[in-house]
Give the backbone structure.
Amino acid sequence: MKIRSGFVSNSSSSSFVCKSDITTSDLALIMMHVIEEDRKQWKKEYGEEYTPSEDFVKAKQWLYDNPNFNEPIILPWSTNYETFIWTNDEGICVDTCNNQRWWEFIEYKYISDGFWDNPECTVGQDCEYLDLSTLKMIHKDNFRV
């Protein structure tokens, strides 16, 4: 089992900031749509039908039912490793992987690329995130993949 306690620093890591006129729940739904579309396309190429996992479906419904939720979120279904979503004064910060087609869906909300040198955008060390796979709050250091 791999335990992740910080940012991934390999070449597939990506970070960006989005406008703060949406909630973390809104952005998580957009990103889940990207994941779903990518998986549908991939399955189609192999002649298979995409069926989302039960926890994915439950998480999507929870986000639809809680559009005002604006706390930190862990989105565990992105390619390679989990996605962290949280807010600060600049907007909604995202630490994710670049192997998804994020830009096609969030371009109109996109503000800036990368924030590794900005201390305002580091993931809170004493912060809890909503783990969408369990719908429970968890400290980021306790999240296991």
Remarks:
- The longest strand covers residues 91-97.
- Residues 1-11 have pLDDT under 50 and may be disordered.
- Helices lie at 24-45, 54-65, 102-106.
- The radius of gyration is 15 Å.
